[in-house]
Amino acid sequence: MVENKHINTSKFMNVKNLNIGYKINEVRKIKHISSEEMAQKLNCHRSNLYKIFQKENIDLELLIHISEILEYDFFAYISEVMNKTERFSTQSQTFSA
Asked: Which among 17, 37, 19 has a CA at the least distance from the CA of 28?
């Protein structure tokens, strides 16, 4: 039997507003990887890469591939954003009590 557990969805709210494409482009720039080089490693045209930079959400397999190319753990970043949101939500509840 599957037990129904309440999931606190408030910590997912900030992730919904997270523009992962912006973060990907930011990391690419920090790592000094050109758009041309990254597009080549993704086997896509530069215009498609720019579309990725505009995405608010992304396919997990593509994010894994991009994480490998940029040697950056985007999943840890997303988790960090979620945890910060959860801590902020908890602190807000404490102050309003």
From this structure: 37
